[in-house]
Amino acid sequence: MRSVFIVLPLLHCLITACPAQTAMPGTALLTTQEDLADKLMDGAHRFVERKIAESVRSRQRYWHRDFTTATAYAASVRENRARFQRKIGVADARLPGSMERFGDEASPALAGESASYRVYQVRWPVLEGVHGEGLLLEPKGAPVGGVVLLPDADQAPEQVAREAGHRLAGNGCLVIIPTLIDRTARWSGRPDIKMTDQPHREWIYRQAFQMGRHVIGYEVQKVMAAVDWLANRRPALRIGVAGYGEGGLLAFYSAAADVRIEAALVSGYFGSRQNVWSEPIFRNVWGLLEEFGDAELATLVAPRGLVIHPAPAPEFQSAKGNLRTAAPEEVRGEFERISSLLPAGFQRRHLSSGADESESTLLNMLGIRAKPPVSTPAMDLRQGLDTAARQRRQVKEIEGHVQNLVRESERTRSEFFLHKIAPEFADIKWFTDLRHQTLKVEPFLEASRAYRDHFWKEILGKFDDPLLAPNARTRKIYDTPAYTGYDVVLDVYPELIAWGVLLVPKGIAPGEKRPVVVCQHGRRGVPRDMIEDPDNVYHAVAARLAERGFVTFSPHNLYRGEDRYRWLSRKANGIKASLFSFILAQHDQILRWLPTLGFVDGKRIGFYGLSYGGETAVRVPTILEGYSLSICSGDFNNWTRKIAATDEEFSFQYTIEWEMPYFNMGNTFDYAEMAYLMLPRPFMVERGHHDRVGRDRWVAYEYAKLRWLYAQFGLDDRTAIEYFNGGHAMNAQGTFDFLHKHLNWPKP
Questions:
Q1: Could you say which of 379, 404, 429 is where a domain stops?
Q2: Is residue 447 located within the same domain as residue 592?
Q3: Does residue 538 fall inside a structural domain?
Q4: Contact yes or no for 30/489 (Cβ under 8 A)
Q5: DSSP of 79-101, one letter per residue?
Q6: Tens digit of pLDDT for each residue in 646-670?
Q7: Best CA proximity match to 550, nearest among 511, 599, 598, 493
Q8: Looking at the structure, do residues 46 and 146 belong to the same domain, yes or no?
Q9: What is the CATH number of the domain that holds 20?
Q10: Half-sphere exposure in the Cβ direction for 336 (13 Å, CA)
């Protein structure tokens, strides 16, 4: 009988579909014949591209430079520097600086020697379990300066040692050349789970980003650890950095982050970052353009020296972004933009025309008179050098550090959230009270506001633009014995709309106000899927709930159109926004509009979503308090492990969902912490035992923390979990009971 119950309303929908010529009373007629999903997506891209363009001007609100003295200037940009370090994931205290020369019979510590310097195979501690590794070129006389020389990611230290390293060491510099994480994929994955085609830099980026770290930040830390060692030498050395390609980025970022670096040479990396979203994904930095373009980063280097060499960029192309050589006019334009931010003569900087000129200028900025080296490059004495093993060590050390953060993340989140938001929990006598007291909910709610704000602004990203008037446009698309259905389009921002399908039950009495259930589709879905459901995943919940007397609204969310929504999120990341920044704004407008309908009770609006719609159920209603309850179907999970764990086959580390990591979310919010923000509103989880988005034990464990919290406030009757022996679908049984109970609407 159940299958007939589901199919009959669908037949009514299909048989009685109406011409799109009638508007809902009180609204304008929706006349466009465009695909509304495409129209919404196109507008979202235009909106974020405009915001990126505006960022050059708007980022100046973060800067308050004081040019009176060098000391005053350093103090005035201290917070900018600290924010930059956090953005690139420089978040961990480094180990004490040291330098180990190491080797064995086949690959001795003394790797080479010339008439003027020796080459050593070295490593140095950076973080717990993470080392820098590469070469040290040591002059035979007393060194006159120190340089950290950074190759491109796909260059071995030995290659640049014979070239730029030879010239710098020949001029008396102590030169450290680190190994960088390269762009090959040999070690990206696990043989017992899956090996991926992700470049090593992406493999690290994906897991690190979720944990507030970055492949860029790890390598900047390696540079800073090398600077620690150089700075502790006696007599003290003047220190510079130089790099090409990915090494140029790291040299630039390291000089911006570390004031001990007196001069930086950046080759093959400098220009406008307005299209940073089109660069390889491992260059994606959360909120970079909100405060920093390359010109702004140059002011973090100021008043110290900066040399820009506009060399051709390394070649690299992928489905998630390409490296490109900036046009000369782009480099010059960004270089000249520095002059609009700094007074004349405040910073030593130079736009060079060649490698020799660049190196000479760098040396001069370090107080070293450049001269051509008189000796030939040192020959490599090692017979058993295994560069693949060295690369594997570098990749696996950083992976190990991130995975330890993943394992410790529950403790970190607890310290961030629960122990601070509800310190009274520390006073509970856990093992002596037979019956714990019921705590007052008001202090928790007061404290949770700051966390809700942090979740929206710092993790998901919030647009500051004011919402437009809704300007609702509608057209009738369903007319069944039970309900009337309308396409609804609302304005959100100048380029962005919200779209959904509203089902209005027939027989609503004049003045009567009904509860609403917002029914949210998942990835690749559209609103009609919640009504007609050709795949039998959603079980036509919007139509069935409307037949039970609920008003239902099925919004369109942006996660449709592979990979356009991923690129949308990627673009938004640069201005500290994400896919959910758009979705939250759309739902904010929906929640403002629905209560204006005479038949809607604005205090009884619930949310029910599956899959990506279930993901929405713990991100949107937790923030937007206009939702009076939420049901998460097919998504509740241990999200940190789901995103970043490399030892789980269901992890997004092994899938195409490269938009899923959210910067530092793993240390702040998992599903329990997100759902905490629903309290005291009702919240439910729907879980199919065979749903491969996660494991029952993950779901049960994460939900247990939420239920425990509700119980402390005597609210455990407002939360529930239903398991059913099925897969990735809405079961629509216990959830319907939950909706009837908590939206106070009688069952049929």
A1: 404
A2: yes
A3: yes
A4: yes
A5: HHHHHHHHHTT--SPPPPP--EE
A6: 999 999 999 999 999 999 999 999 9
A7: 599
A8: no
A9: 3.40.50.1820
A10: 6
Instruction: Give 426: exposed, middle or buried? Use CB within 10 Å, 0-12, 13-18, 19+.
Output: exposed
How many Å apart are CA 660 and CA 448, to the nearest integer? Answer: 25
120 in the same domain as 209: yes
- Indicate if 16 and 120 belong to the same structural domain: no
Copy the structure tokens of residue 403: 């995975």
Which residues, 6 or more positions from 645, have their beta carbon under 8 angstroms from its beta carbon?
207, 403, 406, 651, 653
* Rounded-to-integer distance, Cα 154 and Cα 263, Å: 24
Bridge partner list, 139: 117
Q: pTM surpassing 0.90?
A: yes
Domains identified in the chain, total number: 2
Instruction: Report the length, in residues, of the chain.
Output: 748
Maximum Cα–Cα distance across the chain: 97
Asked whether residue 26 carries a pLDDT value surpassing 60, the answer given is yes
Q: Is 239 exposed, middle or buried (0-12, 13-18, 19+ CB in 10 A)?
A: buried
The last residue of a domain, from among 385, 404, 423: 404
Residue 421 belongs to some domain of the structure: no
Whether the Cβ atoms of residue 633 and residue 179 lie closer than 8 Å to each other: no
Each residue of 45-103: pLDDT tens digit? 999 999 999 999 999 999 999 999 999 999 999 999 999 999 999 999 999 999 999 99
In a shared domain, residues 525 and 555: yes
Kind and range of the H or E run holding 629: strand 629-633
- CB of 650 within 8 A of CB of 660? no
Angle at alpha carbon of residue 737, lines to 736 and 743, rounded to 5°: 85
Q: Indicate if the pLDDT at residue 459 is higher than 90.
A: yes
Single-letter code of the amino acid located at 695: R
Domain that includes residue 711, residue range: 2-52+442-742
Give the separation between CA 604 and CA 612, rounded to whole angstroms.
Answer: 23
